């Protein structure tokens, strides 16, 4: 079996060809597509070094990539369908928490954002960083990815490198993008390069950055993989080359399924500990003292964010086309999706202990983002908790220093949010939420994150 090649960062690519760049008509939507022919550079220029990078999608993945390449001295064109987002970038305002305004502003001489797909024609390498959500039936929705692919296909010219970064199921790069790109007559591996390199962004994290996190790449051909490796070596200290796009696609899913399964395991243990009257946090703390054969995962109110609640469904959907059911993976998803219901049950029990019903109870939720240190509420368990408590008639308020509005509510100031309430529920331990003040001011507190460990108080309960 071929082993992944671990390649240290470095290595200077050849200078890219500047000739035969012909501008094409602009469009306002990725779904339009473009097919106007563009003169190709000479064949001997097709493997030259990228000096101009295009990034399709300027969200939490695309914007940091664009900034990183601009900081490395490359010219960058970023394409996004949201005019407000593009205007904000042009004025130096970042919409991504990991990229402060001053860092974005420092790249203005090399990084230009646009809504015109034709501006990608000048790029030597194009990185696709668009969402890959689920349909209402919890199946892969490749709509944004295919729309972006059609836009790139409309601008494609010989000598370019295209890399997909969006998380997806194994086979997407080869089965979906390759036919799009070859429909115009160019051949992948001969005229253009195509590769997959999964994003590894963890919003709010500062100890592992794009530079320090190893970058996995898999090319349709060995030449495609090498082109992608050399590009990413500009901004990553280590590039890990695998044998194919499929291996890279599945590696990304494995990373997130691993977390989903282990979070489900400890969440199920929390349910059992609740029935047995055992402190799950004490159990996890004790198990974590083992220096080998154990990796710590903490229980919580459920999963959230851009990857872990979504990616397992991409894997299980793809597995069904091979006559296989990923029962372990799907069971983990069910356990994690039920945790908000368990939280609401705990809220009911806590209020019942003091003779109160949920209907009419004044409940303050502390932290509504899916994890601490971010403003991201995508798939946050807090959203489901809010909806369930509303259905039961609770009088809700919340505080989150990074999320000004959610579900029709506005964030209340801390600690005033704790005044005249019946119960506080700490959903996400955001910076700025003082645990000691919360314990002192809340008449009852349900801690879903275990941050009150070490505080003995009769009115404090933990998941």
Q: What class do helices, strands and sheet pairing give?
A: alpha/beta
CATH topology of the largest domain: Rossmann fold
What topology, given as strand order, has the largest sheet?
A: 1-9-8-7-6-5-2-3-4
Proportion of beta-strand residues: 5-15%
Radius of gyration: 24 Å
CATH class of the largest domain: Alpha Beta
Q: What's the architecture of the largest domain in CATH terms?
A: 3-Layer(aba) Sandwich
Give the CATH superfamily of the largest domain: NAD(P)-binding Rossmann-like Domain
* Tally of helical runs: 12
> Average pLDDT across residues?
89
**Overall 3D form:** globular
Largest sheet: 9 strands, mixed
Number of strands: 16
User: What's the end-to-end separation, in Å?
Assistant: 45 Å
Low-pLDDT regions: 7-48
Along the chain, the helix and strand elements come as EEHEHHEEHEHEEHEHHHHEHEEEEHEE
Return the domain count: 2
How much helicity do the residues have? 25-40%
Give the SSE layout.
Elements: E1 5-8, E2 52-56, H1 62-71, E3 75-79, H2 83-90, H3 101-105, E4 111-114, E5 125-128, H4 143-155, E6 161-164, H5 172-182, E7 193-196, E8 215-219, H6 222-232, E9 238-242, H7 245-276, H8 280-287, H9 311-320, H10 327-352, E10 362-366, H11 381-391, E11 395-399, E12 405-406, E13 409-410, E14 423-426, H12 435-441, E15 445-447, E16 460-462
Parallel strand pairs: 2-3, 2-5, 3-4, 5-6, 6-7, 8-9, 10-11, 10-14, 14-15, 15-16
Antiparallel strand pairs: 1-9, 7-8, 12-13
Helix pairs in contact: 4-5, 7-9, 7-10, 9-10, 10-11
Describe the structure.
Residues 364-454 form the UDP-glucose/GDP-mannose dehydrogenase C-terminal domain. One of its GO terms (molecular function) is oxidoreductase activity, acting on the CH-CH group of donors, NAD or NADP as acceptor. It holds the Pfam family UDPG_MGDP_dh_C. Keywords: NAD, Oxidoreductase. The chain is of the alpha/beta class and 463 residues long. The protein folds into two domains: 5-242, Rossmann fold; 263-462, Rossmann fold. It has twelve helices and 16 strands. Strands 1-9-8-7-6-5-2-3-4 form a nine-stranded mixed sheet, sandwiched between helices. Strands 11-10-14-15-16 form a five-stranded parallel sheet, covered by helices on one side. Helix 4 links the parallel strand 5 (125-128) and strand 6.
């Amino acid at each position: 079996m071929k082993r992944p090649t671990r390649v240290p960062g470095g290595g200077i690519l050849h200078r890219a060809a500047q000739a035969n760049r012909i501008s094409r008509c602009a469009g306002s939507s990725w779904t339009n597509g473009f097919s106007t022919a563009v003169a190709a550079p000479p064949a001997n220029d097709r493997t030259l070094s990228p000096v101009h990078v295009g990034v399709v999608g300027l969200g939490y993945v695309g914007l940091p990539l664009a900034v990183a390449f601009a900081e490395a001295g490359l010219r960058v064109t970023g394409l996004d369908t949201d005019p407000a987002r593009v205007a904000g970038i042009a004025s130096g305002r970042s919409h991504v928490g990991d990229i402060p305004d001053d860092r974005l502003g420092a790249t203005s001489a090399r990084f230009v954002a646009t809504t015109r797909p034709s501006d990608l024609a000048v790029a030597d390498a194009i990185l696709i960083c668009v969402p890959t959500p689920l349909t209402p039936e919890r199946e892969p929705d490749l709509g944004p990815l295919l729309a972006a692919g059609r836009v790139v296909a409309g601008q494609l010219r010989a000598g370019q490198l295209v890399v997909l970064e969006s998380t997806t199921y194994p086979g997407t790069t080869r089965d979906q993008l390759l036919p799009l790109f070859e429909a115009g007559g160019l051949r992948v591996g001969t005229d253009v390069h195509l590769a997959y390199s999964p994003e590894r962004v963890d919003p709010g994290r500062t100890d592992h950055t794009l530079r320090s996190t190893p970058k996995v790449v898999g090319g349709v051909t060995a030449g495609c993989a090498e082109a992608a490796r050399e590009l990413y070596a500009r901004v990553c200290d280590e590039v890990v080359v695998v044998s194919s796009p499929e291996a890279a696609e599945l590696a990304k899913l494995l990373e997130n399924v691993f977390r989903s399964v282990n979070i489900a395991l400890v969440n199920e243990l929390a349910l059992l500990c609740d029935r047995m009257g055992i402190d799950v946090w004490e159990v996890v703390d004790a198990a974590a003292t083992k220096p080998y054969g154990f990796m710590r995962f903490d229980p919580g109110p459920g999963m959230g964010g851009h990857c872990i609640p979504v990616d397992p469904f991409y894997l299980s959907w793809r597995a069904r086309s091979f006559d296989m059911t990923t029962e372990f993976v799907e069971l983990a998803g069910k356990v994690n999706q039920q945790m908000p219901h368990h939280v609401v049950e705990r809220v009911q029990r806590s209020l019942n202990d003091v003779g109160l019903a949920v209907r009419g109870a004044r409940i303050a939720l502390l932290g509504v983002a899916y994890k601490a240190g971010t403003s991201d509420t995508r798939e946050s368990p807090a959203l489901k908790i809010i909806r369930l408590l509303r259905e039961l008639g609770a009088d809700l308020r919340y505080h989150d220093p990074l999320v000004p509005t959610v579900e029709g509510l506005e964030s209340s100031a801390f600690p005033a949010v704790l005044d005249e309430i019946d119960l506080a529920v700490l959903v996400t331990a955001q910076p700025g939420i003082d645990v000691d003040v919360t314990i002192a001011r809340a008449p009852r507190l349900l801690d879903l994150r275990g941050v009150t460990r070490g505080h003995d108080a009769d009115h404090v309960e933990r998941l």
